[in-house]
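Researcher: I'd like a candidate sequence for this fold, 946 residues long. If you have to choose between options at a position, lean toward the conservative one.
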């Protein structure tokens, strides 16, 4: 294949010359030409710019109308003139594409906020075409003028037009967030964009929130920007598609028409008032009539179009009259299934970023707009600063000349020409005292900061040009006062411009004010409703990345999740950081560490269990309150979540062990909980006054340790409690003293230590110790069907206690037993774990931890501290512990959770801001009674006198 180097077409008499012929492979030439064509379509035609949300054709129409001064307060002109100017000056592709584009910008059923103020027939929602451009008139709308404001102040770059005669902007300053408000659609080569329109007031608030906190998550943005707001209203079915579109940039929304049931003369009518976006009224009516004729939907008598001039342009009024024996609910569902009353909208957040197509999430789209506005405002301010300095310089020359007017006039009169007069004026030396009198103290100081401190000054060429052009009328006193006032105003303006440019935060404040004004001025009510009904089953895990989350739960039942890296490690004894805005009426109850793909099994205090995926929990900020659990779980009145267990699978060889406040334990195969139901199932039968407090997943050979509020603990083999069914009660795990209750249960792993935390911020770690076996006696009294009945539990087991607990007398344990927890038979009173004294308060939580773990501690006041487990002293059982978290007055520890070591390795030294090692506080100073204190430091003395 040969090609001519100059691109000419050879004629019959043309003889190719060897030096003008280049050999080109047809594959390479086709590839190069097609790529060039593809990029031209992508950049110059089909895709919008992420900054102003306009395609080149749309932008050129607005610029041409701005050139014609067709602002919102001017008269409208023929669209033919607008299209002609656009084609002749900017757009080389003919008016065949210009006029349809102009028409769409004026249709309020296609644009959420129209950019063209129309007059004449511009089509209708019925699907009727617009009149020819010679019959219609238009001008810019108010929001379009916001996009073009400051265009002449060097705010954007310009390029030459197609004929090299004019210059056109590559983007508009666009104070109005057009891309998100009006959306965009287009098909390019190998890619497409489909950005839904949104409500201006909501978009403004989303921009403001991202301006105030650049780390705002997409879920937090959705609090103020819940979803698209289509011009034709309708209903979006479900929030999952919205969230996926905002997170990934791609999704599908299900849209439904807005309908209601009417009854006229004992006849049911389905009234359609709003239709899905991009559908037309006539097409829907024709499709419905076709379905009736084909007998695909039975029970419809007739379809009546009652749309008239009183109906808003973006709404319809279709009456679907039903037959007397028809079920209106069934008919409506069939209409949604077979007709355009239900449709889908593809969300593809694809736009040009840096002149390259890019699929972005909603936060990135808003970020592109914010960065554009920062650039525009900075360039505008720099332009205004330069203009102000230029004008100030001229006025300074005029003020100096007026003060020395006699010499100035004499110089001009004695000069032979204008040029000579300017040269002689520049040669005049003006004393600094005269300049000070002319400009005033503030003006002279600014003058010296620019010109330097000298005895005399001279006029510049610009100043002398202004002087020789000065009219005699400007010598009047009133004109002199005007010049002095203008000079003072220019100095103030310059200081304001410099202040604005000194910090990006000042520019962000300007953008925030702009967005607030736009929302207040042009914002209107949302048209599109968002229902909670998800119409399609999707595998959410395929679209959600796996990461570790901290799940917090308040006493009043508010839950939220946030990434685990939100909390950085601190040293023991610190005050922590604010984890949630809590008050006295809603303290933090518990928190858990789970993967986004894990199942969370919520066990309630009434013995029921519910299932929920972690990624379905609300992802919110560190200080947010969370979402009420009653919106997620079908809880009964007065029922509260007591504990939570996370698991990925439900194996048959693992067991779920539950413990109650009264000391009852129950073991059930985990496989019995693998079928989740929306209403929950019974996990354990509880006696009156008892409540479920803890649940753990164990393997076959692990020990259980129960702990009580008064500092007692018992360790026994889980084999002592045989597996039972779900709808059973369990057996006694520990015998409680009066006014005591079980507060926690952990797996007694000999390789780990038991972390005990008291409500006043004191705690300790004690090794579990290796198993000192005791005979396992089958002392369970089986009830009917092998299940222990509730009334048989209380007297079923003999008591077993430590010596010091059984006698209540003082004594000493061996050093080995005081440093660990030996295995006992279940049902005993256990051994002393920690001394519960007024300084410590009651025990609130226990955890099994190892050296490399981190621990999250949460207080009732909402503060959360993350500490390294290794920094909490490892001491004996019957001790008082050390301060782990410093509490404010009236606050108390509510709960704590373990972060496994394998999730902490990367953050210990590299990613976390580790504070200098804290010194252990002398806690004796905090106690009024020295007898109730322990020796300062990590090591505590063993005291079994209790």
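Model: Candidate sequence:
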């Amino acid at each position: 294949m040969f090609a001519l180097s100059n691109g000419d077409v050879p004629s019959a008499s043309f003889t190719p010359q060897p030096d003008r012929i280049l050999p080109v492979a047809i594959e390479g030439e086709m590839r190069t030409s097609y790529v060039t064509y593809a990029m031209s379509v992508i950049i110059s035609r089909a895709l919008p710019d992420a900054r102003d949300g306009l395609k080149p054709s749309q932008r050129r129409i607005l610029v041409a109308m701005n050139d014609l001064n067709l602002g919102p307060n001017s008269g409208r002109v023929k669209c033919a003139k607008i299209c002609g100017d656009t084609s002749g000056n900017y757009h080389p592709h003919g008016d065949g594409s210009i006029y349809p584009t102009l028409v769409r910008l004026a249709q309020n059923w296609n644009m959420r906020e129209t950019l063209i103020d129309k007059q004449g027939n511009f089509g209708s929602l019925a699907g009727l075409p617009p009149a020819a451009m010679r019959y219609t008139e238009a001008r810019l709308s108010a929001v379009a003028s916001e996009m073009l404001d400051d265009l002449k102040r060097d705010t954007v770059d310009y390029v030459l037009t197609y004929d090299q005669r004019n210059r056109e902007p590559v983007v508009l300053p666009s104070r109005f967030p057009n891309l998100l408000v009006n959306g965009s659609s287009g098909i390019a080569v190998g890619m497409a964009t489909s950005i839904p329109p949104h409500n201006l007031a909501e978009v403004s608030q989303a921009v403001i929130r991202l301006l105030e906190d650049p780390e705002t998550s997409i879920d937090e943005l959705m609090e103020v920007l819940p979803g698209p707001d289509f011009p034709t209203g309708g209903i979006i079915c479900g929030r999952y598609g919205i969230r996926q579109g905002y997170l990934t940039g791609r999704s599908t929304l299900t849209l439904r028409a807005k309908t209601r049931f009417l009854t006229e003369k004992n006849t049911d009518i389905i009234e359609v008032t709003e239709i899905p976006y991009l559908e037309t009224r006539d097409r829907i009516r024709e499709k419905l009539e076709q379905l009736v004729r084909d007998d695909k939907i039975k029970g419809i008598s007739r379809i009546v179009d009652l749309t008239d001039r009183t109906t808003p342009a973006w709404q319809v009024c279709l009456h679907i009259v039903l037959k007397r024996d028809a079920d209106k609910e069934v008919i409506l569902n069939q209409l949604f299934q077979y007709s355009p009353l239900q449709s889908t909208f593809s969300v593809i957040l694809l736009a040009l970023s840096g002149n390259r197509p890019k699929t972005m999430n909603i936060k990135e789209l808003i970020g592109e707009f914010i960065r554009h506005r920062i650039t525009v405002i900075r360039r505008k301010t720099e332009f205004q600063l330069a203009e102000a300095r230029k004008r100030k310089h001229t006025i300074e020359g005029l003020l100096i000349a007026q003060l020395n007017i006699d010499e100035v006039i004499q110089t001009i009169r004695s000069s032979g020409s204008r040029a000579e007069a300017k040269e002689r004026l520049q040669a005049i030396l003006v004393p600094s005292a005269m300049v000070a009198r002319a400009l005033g103290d503030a003006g002279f100081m600014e003058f010296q900061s620019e010109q330097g401190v000298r005895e005399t000054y001279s006029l510049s060429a610009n100043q002398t040009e202004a002087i020789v052009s000065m009219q005699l009328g400007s010598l009047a006193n009133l004109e002199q006062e005007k010049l002095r006032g203008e000079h003072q105003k220019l100095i103030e303006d310059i200081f304001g411009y410099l202040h604005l440019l000194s910090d990006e935060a000042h520019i962000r404040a300007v953008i925030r004010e702009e967005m607030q004004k736009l929302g207040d001025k042009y914002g209107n009510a949302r048209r599109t409703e968002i229902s909670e009904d998800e119409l399609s089953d999707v595998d959410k895990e395929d679209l959600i990345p796996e990461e570790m989350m901290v799940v917090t739960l308040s006493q009043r039942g508010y839950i939220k999740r946030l990434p685990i890296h939100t909390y950085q490690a601190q040293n023991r004894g610190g005050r922590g950081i604010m984890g949630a805005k809590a008050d006295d009426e809603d303290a933090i109850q518990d928190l858990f560490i789970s993967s986004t793909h894990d199942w969370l099994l919520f066990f309630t205090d009434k013995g029921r269990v519910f299932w929920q995926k972690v990624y379905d929990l609300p992802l919110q900020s560190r200080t947010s309150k969370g979402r009420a659990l009653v919106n997620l779980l079908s809880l009964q009145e007065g029922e509260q979540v007591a504990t939570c267990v996370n698991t990925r699978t439900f194996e048959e060889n693992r067991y779920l062990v539950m413990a109650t406040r009264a000391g009852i334990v129950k073991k059930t195969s985990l496989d019995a909980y693998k079928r989740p139901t929306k209403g929950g199932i019974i996990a354990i039968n509880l006696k009156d006054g008892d409540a479920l407090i803890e649940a753990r997943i164990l393997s076959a050979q692990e020990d259980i340790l129960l702990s009580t509020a008064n500092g007692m603990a018992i360790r026994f083999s889980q084999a002592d409690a045989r597996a039972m069914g779900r709808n059973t009660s369990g057996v006694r795990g520990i015998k409680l003293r009066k006014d005591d209750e079980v507060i926690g249960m952990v797996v007694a792993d000999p390789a780990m230590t038991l972390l005990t935390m008291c409500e006043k911020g004191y705690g300790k770690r004690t090794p579990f110790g290796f198993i000192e076996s005791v005979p396992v006696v089958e002392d369970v009294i089986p009830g009917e069907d092998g299940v222990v009945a509730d009334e048989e539990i209380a007297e079923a087991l003999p008591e077993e206690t430590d010596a010091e607990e059984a006698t209540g007398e003082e004594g000493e344990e061996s050093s080995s037993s005081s440093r660990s927890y030996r295995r006992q038979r279940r049902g005993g009173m256990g051994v002393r774990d920690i001394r519960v004294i007024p300084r410590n308060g009651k025990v609130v939580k226990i955890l099994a931890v190892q050296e490399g773990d981190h621990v999250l501690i949460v207080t009732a006041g909402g503060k959360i501290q993350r500490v390294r487990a290794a920094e909490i002293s490892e001491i004996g059982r019957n001790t008082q512990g050390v301060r782990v978290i410093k509490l404010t007055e009236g606050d108390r520890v509510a709960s704590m959770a373990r972060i496994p070591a394998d999730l902490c390795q990367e953050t210990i030294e590299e990613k976390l801001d580790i504070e200098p090692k804290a010194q252990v506080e002398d806690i004796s100073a905090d106690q009024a009674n020295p007898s109730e204190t322990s020796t300062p430091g990590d090591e505590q003395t063993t005291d079994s006198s209790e």
